[in-house]
Structure formats: C-alpha cells, structure tokens
Amino acid sequence: MEIKGSTNIVGLIGHPVEHSFSPPMHNAAFEKLNMDYAYVAFNVKPNDLESAINGAEALNIKGLNVTIPHKIEVMNYLDEIDEVAQLIGAVNTIDFKNLKGYNTDGIGAVRAIEEVASIKNKNVLIAGAGGASRAISFYIAKYGADNLKILNRNVEKAQKLANDVSNSGLIDNVGFDSINNMDLSDVDILINTTPVGMHPNVDDTPIAQACDMHEDLIVFDAVYNPNETGLLRQAIEADVKPVYGIKMLLYQGAESFEIWTGKKAPIDVMQEALTKYLGL
Ligand SMILES: NC(=O)c1ccc[n+]([C@@H]2O[C@H](COP(=O)([O-])OP(=O)(O)OC[C@H]3O[C@@H](n4cnc5c(N)ncnc54)[C@H](OP(=O)(O)O)[C@@H]3O)[C@@H](O)[C@H]2O)c1
Which sites bind NADP(+) (predicted)? Predict the structure, then answer.
C-alpha cells in the first residue's frame, strides 16, 4: 500500500485500540481493489471524544468505526443517525459525507446468519441482553422474524430490551425469560450473545446439556475466540448448522466499508485477513 498526498483516510476510534482486527481487514480490502484509501486506529480518551470528531471532520477523514467506550456518547456529536442505530442507542460507524452514524454490528450478525437461512418468519431466541444482543435484536426484528425471545441471567434487563424492541413496531411478538428457562423445541435460530464459552473457558456453553437441539435449528455464537466454541461444537454434534462469531466481525466491517466507499466489499479477502490476524 502506497500512502500518497491523495490517500483517503478512514479508521477506528476507541480506548484502547491497539489490538483491533479492523486495520488489517480493511487495508487488505483497499489493497485488493487498488483503492487509494488507508485505515488507521486512533486511541481517543473518553474526555477527548468531541474534539476527536471535530478534528476528524477538519482533517477530511472519510469515515470512522467507533468502539468501546465511545459507541453511545458519540451520538451527541453527529448530525444524523440511522433509524435502527437510533433505536439501538449506539453507533459503530460514522460516514463523514453527512456526519451520519450507523450501527453495523447487528447487520453483521444478520448477514452472517442469512448466509445459512433467511430470518424472515422465523422464531429467534437470543441469549444475553447486553450491547451485542441489543444491536442484533433490532435487526432480527427489522429482517422480519415472527417471534423474538430474549433470555438473560438478569431478567429485568431482558424485559427492558424486549419492551424496547416491541415498542419499535418492527415486530409484533417479543418475549423474555430467565436464561435458565431455555427451550429450543419451537426455535428456528438460537443466538448466543453472552461471553460464556470465551477463552479461556472454552468448554462452557450457555445452554444446558439437557436442552435438545433439533436438526432444523441454526446456532449462531457471537463469541469468536475460540472460533469453534463449546456451543458450536454441541451444534455440530447434533447435526445443526453452526454460524461462527468471526462472520459477524467480517460483515460489520463489510457494511462499514460499503457505507464509506459505495463499493461492494471484497468479502473473501477481508475474511482471509481477519482469520490470519486472529490466528484462527
Ligand atoms: N462476533 C462479534 O462481532 C461480536 C460483537 C460484539 C460482541 N461479541 C461478543 O459477544 C459477547 C457479549 O458482548 P456484549 O458487548 O454484549 O457484552 P455485555 O454488554 O457485557 O453483555 C453481556 C451479556 O452476557 C450476559 N452474561 C455475562 N456473563 C454471563 C454468564 N456467566 N452466564 C450467563 N450470562 C452471562 C450478561 O447477563 P447479565 O445482564 O445478567 O449480566 C449480559 O446479558 C462477548 O463475548 C463479545 O466478545 C461479538
């Protein structure tokens, strides 16, 4: 990659950002398409967020990804916010053409799942009610699921998220329950957004062994370290289609790329760079 006077800059703001997978993934895409772009990571402390956004605009930066701890606060400094990002209440992508914020995390999960099956008219169960669950839930609703049920350890949090999704008007049937009351018999798509199974506790799974997986189920695990989690191993053993967490990382990046450049993201090249960077 040759950095020239004309090179367009996009990047990431967060705190910390040193271990981000996004620079190698996006730069591989720019290189493949021979685009005069470069992606860099900026470590922005919480108190510096407003000046970072103003500075990025002044420096003619084309687009930014936004990560922890800025995803909510950054909404105060944008001119426009995409409708679903507004419902989610968090932004992970800024397009400086119109200083507009988007949330591509949920789209990333939906694109990953839709590689395997359409979400339309399906019964979807989500374990967890934190940030990832919130981003995914609204997109599951937007993509036409019939039923959405949110299970969480803290049931009040599941109820709050279920109410928010229900009030969006994107879906009619939204329920909630304790994560201990999981029943997969009527579920078409199971999504794990809890960190259960993350390295180093790689044999833990968020569902009880007694919870039977039927053969038409699809299981998506947002956890991507390890690549094949205990939950996905359970799925494979039950002849159930697994959807890997790395795909959500990939497609959230692809969506951001497409928002900034207006070009179709080169998925294979981005996936190869991501897999290599994460050592998967
Ligand atoms: N693949 C991707 O692109 C991607 C993107 C974002 C996140 N993720 C992954 O998704 C996971 C969650 O991230 P997040 O940002 O949503 O975190 P978060 O906001 O902290 O939410 C965590 C959720 O998991 C639940 N939880 C935590 N520990 C649990 C346990 N031991 N047993 C049962 N439930 C538990 C929490 O329940 P309580 O409310 O009861 O505490 C909460 O609902 C992480 O592993 C993260 O790496 C992946």
Answer: 83, 128-132, 222, 245
